UniProtKB/TrEMBL annotation:
Enzyme class: oxidoreductase
Keywords, ordered alphabetically: Membrane, Oxidoreductase, Transmembrane, Transmembrane helix
EC numbers, comma separated: 1.4.99.-
FAD dependent oxidoreductase domain ranges (all copies): 12-405
Family (UniProt): Belongs to the DadA oxidoreductase family.
Domain of life, source organism: Bacteria
One MF annotation (Gene Ontology) recorded for this entry: oxidoreductase activity
This protein's name: D-amino acid dehydrogenase
Length: 421
């Protein structure tokens, strides 16, 4: 943890009480700031953090933008249960984001982004381990389950095997070996070309993590509490932020940190800052695991179908989908039904699918899948946004970097395009 500095009495307002905002609040407290958290919902972690996939994939950080993705995306659009759905909007932000996304769809940019996200993933893994001193891993169901990415196409499997394994941490698994590694995949294995396993990855309950971390925040001597109110605008005075208007009144501080997911986009725009964020809507299903069910112990990602499976406590979590449908958080029952069919086909005996609980959330993504960090042109307005589907994975790492930047310390590595410019 950063060593607290007692030479100042700076007050930071963290706007957003999801996993990124809560982690930011903690690291700022540990860096010596007084902190207030502003959250629009009646509880913490009720937005995109509520029922995400639950995988902490520090070494599997493949950006969505890559060579070949535009052609695949066109194919997915014509699949009934395809991983992508697109609804054109009369909103220039959608088209501007898409243009920037397409500009990132090449191998060189993908490799550059992946390398930087791997650095961030390793830092996040270390910081989560440090945080466990204060927030016991058992409080949020953390388990080092390992991660298995399975491939149906021999060509895609061969391409994955050919990629460099910088830290020699992966294990190549042939299709006949898969059932021995994960018995729950016995029925699926004949359809697979092979898989790549990493024993160091973990799963956990993100919402439970948020609740547990919020409890530690409340016990911290420099924490000034949670204000439950919806931020509606940032008030700019000169070149600084002078306050935040909420539906509960004005809230003021010395520093303001935007961690409000996709809502950060509108708040920043009111202060003259355009954030390249778009809400990628994802779905998850949660089903209870009964005695006798054969649920995977390892977290599994079906690469071609862009679906992940994770045992979280006594439940199976199934997550998938990228819906580009604007700021619409509503459940699309056709998408829910499609994801349920996919789960039953892949893991027919894993859980009680008659008791599925469906969820959808808006994940704030940048065109290159990399979060945005640091000071804006307003010297007291800071960003920690744009984590997309990797908010839980990267939250501790980006929070630690933010605290370093705000206390005037150098980040642990060159931020490059992670830094706000």
């Amino acid at each position: 943890m950063p060593q607290p500095s007692h030479s100042f009495n700076q007050h930071a307002l963290v706007i957003g009480g999801g996993v990124v905002g809560l982690a930011s609040a903690w690291w700022l407290l540990e860096a010596g700031f007084r902190v207030t958290l502003l959250e629009r919902a009646p509880g913490v972690g009720l937005g995109a953090s509520q029922r995400n996939g639950g995988q902490l994939s520090y070494r599997y950080v493949a950006p969505l933008a890559d060579a070949g993705v535009p052609l695949k995306a066109l194919q997915w659009l014509f699949q009934a249960d395809g991983p992508l759905r697109f609804r054109p909007e009369a909103d220039w932000r959608q088209w501007r984001w898409l243009a920037a996304f397409l500009a990132n769809c090449n191998g060189a940019k993908n490799r550059r982004t992946t390398a930087k996200l791997l650095q961030l993933g390793e830092l996040s893994r270390q910081k989560m381990a440090q945080l466990a001193v204060h927030v016991p891993l058992a409080d949020f169901g953390w388990r080092q389950a390992g991660k298995l990415v399975v491939y149906r196409s021999p060509a895609l499997f061969a391409a994955a095997v050919a990629r460099t394994d910088a830290d020699n941490s992966r294990r190549i698994v042939s299709a006949p070996e898969i059932p021995a590694l994960e018995p729950a995949l016995a029925d699926l294995a004949p359809q697979l070309a092979g898989g790549i396993f990493n024993a160091g990855e973990a799963v956990a309950d993100c919402h439970a993590f948020c609740v547990a971390l919020a409890a530690r925040l409340r016990e911290h001597p420099r924490f000034e509490g949670i204000v439950h109110g919806r931020a509606t605008s940032l008030f700019v005075e000169g070149n600084r932020i002078a306050g935040v208007q909420t539906d509960e009144g004005w809230v003021q501080a010395d520093h303001y940190v935007l961690t409000a997911g996709i809502h950060s986009r509108d708040l920043a725009a009111g202060a003259g800052i355009r954030l390249p964020l778009y809400p990628l809507k994802g779905y998850s299903l949660t089903a209870p695991i009964r005695p006798g069910d054969v649920a995977p112990d390892i977290s599994v990602t079906d690469f071609e179908r862009k679906t992940l499976y994770a045992r979280i406590g006594t439940h199976l979590r199934v997550a998938a989908m990228v819906d580009m449908v604007g700021d619409d958080p509503a459940l699309d029952q056709r998408r829910v039904a499609g994801l349920a069919r996919r789960a039953r086909e892949a893991l027919p005996a894993a859980a009680d699918y008659t008791r599925l609980e469906a969820w959808a959330g808006l994940r704030p993504a940048t065109p290159n899948s990399a979060p945005l960090l640091g000071r804006t042109r307003h010297p007291n307005l800071w960003l920690n946004v744009g984590h997309g589907p990797l908010g839980f994975t990267f939250a501790c790492g980006t929070a630690a970097i933010l605290a370093d930047l705000m206390r005037g310390a150098a980040p642990p590595f060159d931020l490059d395009f992670l830094a706000w410019k």
